[in-house]
Structure formats: structure tokens, C-alpha cells
Amino acid sequence: PVFHFDIKALQQLADDLRPKLEENINKYTSAQFVVEAPVVESAERDKVLAKLPEVVVGVVADYNDGVKGNHLYLISPEFALKIYQLVSSEDTSDVDDMVLSVVSEFVATHISSQITQIDSVGKIPGLSYATPQGINESKAMIMFPQGEFVLTSYPLTLDGEAYTLWECLGGEAAEPISKALNGEDDSTAVLTPVDLNSTSAPNPMQNMGGMQQPMMNMGATMQQPMMNMGAMQQPMMNMGAGMQMNQMQMPNMGMN
């Protein structure tokens, strides 16, 4: 699939996050890292591979709600070990589970700041990410987002040593995020429930009122013949009364 994301909007997001990243890593490590200006660009797998050392430490933290899409952070093993040594005050030369756990926790702090920054500019309801998972792999084994995605490079220095934090954001997540940052509504139309208590809502019982008129007309029509039948009773009563009078006036022939 082809995704359309605004590099300019995502560059502004990274610029806004730069001081927060510096604050977070220095608070986390009790060191004095300096975060230089980040660079945001569209990229594909081969372009990123050319920038990476042969072995990298990665943290997978895909967005899984609000928007969904691949979200990957990469650093050199030397940077991972430096973070661990500063946090734990222990020296080690192996990137083991403890090192991955410390790096994953730092990345989670940065993503939380990213979500806060996105929400302050353009609301994405429920934006959240999966539990970060640390990996230590050859760069050729890393699962990058498919197709074109967004690469953000954060350069850092500490005591004259240079490091880089790379962020790879899949196009399916970058597109709605950049739209939100630009104030665009990426939501689809939904059906609005009808409030039957509202005066503007259609009332199906009102249509039944129209059925009452024919029923009333039928009642009036049927009553009219019945009334006419009542009028026929009057001649019948008069006929009965006349017969009674004639019977009373007839002479008693049997007495003569």
C-alpha cells in the first residue's frame, strides 16, 4: 500500500521532542547528554541499513490503538551498554536481557513523551503502544516496516562521544499522525443513533394517526344506514296502532 505522510509536520514533532528527549535521558542516566537537531526523512529498508552498524540493539513498540502501525527504535550496542552502565553503575560488555530491559524502559519514556506531544497538537483518541520488546540482532535480521516509512535520526553526544537514536515509524501510523498534527480529521463517518425522545426525531406512531381517519370514516358510514333503519320503524309502529283501533271499532256480530 502507498501511504501519504507529511514530513514537514513530523519534522516539527521531532523538533518539539528534542528538548524532552534530552531531559528524559539525562534524568534516566544522571548524565549530561546533548541532543542535536533531529533529521526526519522518508526511507526504505536499504536506505536505513546503510546507516546502521552491523549489529544493532532494537526496541519494538508498535502502535496498537488510536492508530496502528510498526514502530521501531534502533541504537548501537555501544550506546545500549553506555545507557545500562550509567543507570546501573555496573560495567558489562554483553548486551544481555538486563541491558535490553534498561534500554526498553528508556524508549518507553520517550514514546510516552511523543504521545503527549501529539495529543497537545492534534488529538488521536486512545493513542497507545504495545509493551516494548528489546532485541539484539544483526541489522539484516531486523524486521523493518514494509514499503516506505518515516526515519527520524536523533544525534546525541556525551563526553565527546557521538551516538544516534533511530526511530522507524511505519507509513500506516505515520499518515494519520501527520494528519492529526496538521489539524486534519482522519476519522470516518459513523451512524448517529436516533433519540426517540427528541422532538426532531421521527415518531413512527405519528403515521398510525393517519390510519385513524379512514377508520373514523368507516364508523360514520356504517352508522348512517343504521339510522335510516330507525326511520323505517315509524311507519311500522303507525301500522300497528291503526290495526288496533280498527279491531276496537268492529261491531260485535255475535251478540245480534
* Overall mean confidence score, pLDDT: 81
Q: Give the number of DSSP strands.
A: 10
What pattern of helices and strands is seen along the backbone?
A: HEEHEEEEHHEEEEHH
* Helix share bin: 40-55%
Radius of gyration: 43 Å
Describe the sheet with the most strands.
Answer: 7 strands, antiparallel
Report how far apart the termini are: 129 Å
Number of helices: 6
Derived structural class: alpha+beta
β-strand amount: 15-25%
Can you walk through the features of this model?
This protein has 256 residues and is α+β, with helices and mostly antiparallel strands. The protein contains six helices and ten strands, in the order αββαββββααββββαα. It has helices at residues 7-29, 45-49, 77-88, 97-121, 171-181, 204-249, and strands at residues 34-35, 39-43, 55-60, 63-65, 67-69, 71-75, 128-129, 133-138, 149-158, 161-169. The strands form two sheets. Strands 1, 2, 3, 6, 8, 9 and 10 form a seven-stranded antiparallel β-sheet that branches. A hairpin with a 2-residue loop joins β9 (149-158) and β10 (161-169). α1 packs across α4 (97-121) and α1 (7-29) crosses α5 (171-181). The longest helix has 46 residues, at 204-249. It starts with 6 loop residues before the first helix and ends in a 7-residue tail after the last helix. Mean pLDDT is 81; it is low at 187-256.
